[in-house]
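Usage example:
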Amino acid sequence: MNDTLSPEFQSSITELPALQKMTHEYAKFSRDVVGLGHVFGGALVFLLVFLLRHDSLRQWEGILLGVTPYIWIATKEWLRRNYYQFSGRVTQPVRRWHDLILGILAGLWAAVIAAVLLAYRLAQAFSWNLALNTTICIAILLAMPFLAWGYLRAPYEFVTGVFLLTLSAFLLSGNLQIATHFARALGIVAGIVALVMILAGYDEHMKFLKLRRKFRALKELA
Amino acid sequence: MRTDLESYMNLDRLVHEPARLVILTVLAEAEEMEFRFLEKVSGLTKGNLSGHIAKLEQAGYVQVVKFFRGKLPVTSFKITPSGRRALKKYRKELNGALQHKPTLFTMMKKRFQSMSS
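Running the assembly step on the lines above writes:
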């Protein structure tokens, strides 16, 4: 047995309330908590806002940046399943109302963005380059409530995720100018939330390392 | 039989068994849990764990879900609403039995009994 396993530490992992707590903590990684996934998401917000402050971006670079929020979501989900839930999947009790409210909020946000775009279009403030671009933008805005419902569960994750997905809708539809305006207008708010998300993600990761240590100790005790 | 002992004797023995108590308590913290996790947390061997789960499933306290993830078979467990109720009832009864405090009525009854004998 490891010498570092003091009696206090042993009781903190073998007593029933301790096991309950460990299970509860571990199950959190199935939904709200993603540690490094949050750190990456926050960093991505800063990166996109920083890059979009410069007008020198080319169209293909904009499209490349537009893909990054999906890479972040995919990485986050991969981390959740394969790294943080290292000892088999344990799911947190479903909070249907919580998820539904997030989906509705994202839907409202998408509707507001669509209405603003339509108003600008009617005022001839800009023109869509291609019909395909319009379709891509609308498709992403329509998919947003479902993406939020499925993958953006923590409050800060929701705010930054919706910001990134909206940005992605503009970038992928080739509307680099609107994306730049959008990033400039909401960059500070998104940046503040992203900073909170990075700090929360770091804290979650530290808690995970502690939890993993307890699990390893359990294995040693067995 | 004394009433405080009576409540202890009436405890659900299916839940009262230590390994099953650990299984139910841990399962109550999650929506669904894979075999691998429960095995590690409970410290039980595969065979032992399967045996206890079979008993809990038979009682309707646990639901066993079997599926394939790619080509790998996966077994996971869910605590049922009746399992949750049984665990809650067990905790309440055990707490009641361990922290039984005599009421004014039982104290007076004992006093009268001792006086009459």
